[in-house]
Amino acid sequence: MASTSILHFRSLFLFVLVASLRYGAAAGDVDGGEGFCSAEPSSECSGGPPLYWKATHPTLAPAHLQDLPGFTRSVVKKDHALITPESHVFGPLPDWINTLGAYLISPSIGAHFTMYLANMQDGSKSALPPKDVERLVFVLQGSISLSVGTGTTHSLSVDSYAYLPANIKHSMISDESTTLVIFERRYSATEDFHPDLIVGSTDKQPLLETPGEVFQLRKLLPTSLPYDFNIHIMDFQPGEYLNVKEVHYNQHGLLLLEGQGIYRLGDSWYPVQAGDTIWMAPFVPQWYAALGKTRTRYLLYKDVNRNPLI
Fold first, then answer.
1. What is the pTM of this model?
2. Do 120 and 99 contact (CB within 8 A), yes or no?
3. Read out DSSP for 210-228?
4. What digits encode the pLDDT tens for the residues 191-236?
5. Could you tell me the superkingdom of the organism this chain comes from (predicted)?
6. What CA–CA distance (Å, rounded) separates 217 from 207?
7. 156, 204, 198: which is closest to 181 by C-alpha?
8. What residues contact residue 161 under an 8 Å CB cut-off, 6+ apart?
9. Which has more confidence, 33 or 148?
10. 239-284, pLDDT tens digit by residue?
């Protein structure tokens, strides 16, 4: 009798194991096979979704809470905020043509910059920022034609960006359904420095040294004095983490482009994933660890090159 029970238990165990493996394989096929890729970007996996797909098409986690009325992972505190996709509110962007925007970070939360998403349809057109406001545009999905001044045109696709100094005349027209993340702030002028128009792409930026750290770092803007902020692209392989719990005077605005992990802000610990936005006030303790099977990549705003007293 005992041996019969043991055989029955073993058969049941093998059945559950095989069913689990088959379900996992099916789930991998549904989400582009990400679960079977090594620590590489999802776009490099055979048949995988486009780069930053999950940043623009995020899924709620845990899945069983997706349809729960009022559910959100968003948290807002005096020195930090986690803004998650299920709580985004889109509305027409003022003076833009056929474009919906969602402001993720603004001065009303305590920031000295704005960070917002712009969803453009085919043929949508941008408006200029307010007087003396500089702008950085990063393409998450689709493509745009950027016209600057009277005749210069640049084509920007996914992972491309443009820094537009304050008061420079420009317009952006979408070539297809496009999502942009945009940073704007009132330019902090100093002496006779004047920043230049910058157009580039992440893959063209060199990897920089990060003494004592394991992550990979790229900076999208020059580090010279004319620029009062920079945008960092930071890559973590699964299991990598910041060695230092940072506390500094700089503000941050962060968008998780790929992957998932744990972010510590102050005394709180937050599970985060692609599509999540974080605001960090000056001097809030901050730390990150990457989890999951693929790399983490996030885009990070940081104010630089200015005296905090000014």
1. 0.84
2. yes
3. -TT--SEEEESS--STT-S
4. 888 999 999 999 999 999 999 899 999 999 999 999 999 999 999 9
5. Eukaryota
6. 6
7. 156
8. 136, 137, 138, 139, 198, 199, 200, 201, 202, 220, 231
9. 148
10. 999 998 899 999 999 999 999 999 999 999 999 999 999 999 999 9
